Amino acid sequence: MSGPCIASHVPGRLRIRHPDLRSAGRNAEAAALLAGWDGVTAAEGKPVCGSIVLRYDPARMAPAETEARILALFAVDGDSTGDEEGEAAEEGGLSLWSFNRPAKIGTLTALGGTLVALTVSKKLHAVLGVMHVAFLLVHLANHRKKILQ
Whole-model pTM? Predict the structure, then answer.
């Protein structure tokens, strides 16, 4: 992840995730900066999760404006996390992350298909099982850093 990830957002509450926010000092600094924004009622940092929960008044800050300001803040602060995925995406190349969502869908679909294929054919069951494992490997490759910590 090269930039901030807006993990969840409903008007009035927004959760930001970023690897840099795992540092207690960086998390506290960012939370204090966000708490000073006009319209923000609270900014609660959680360094263990690498996140900040931002509570704001949607009547004073439009949700789209809030997201744009957060993305701009992290872009200015520098988003050098050393991830190859971010660099490949910026250069216009394909990254493994671009296949993550299709891999998740493929994994679940192939898993369901293997169960149905049990009633039809062992060969089809085996083929769908191999597809399931292939999709799962793509997904796990994306999360290798978290898995191997």
Answer: 0.50
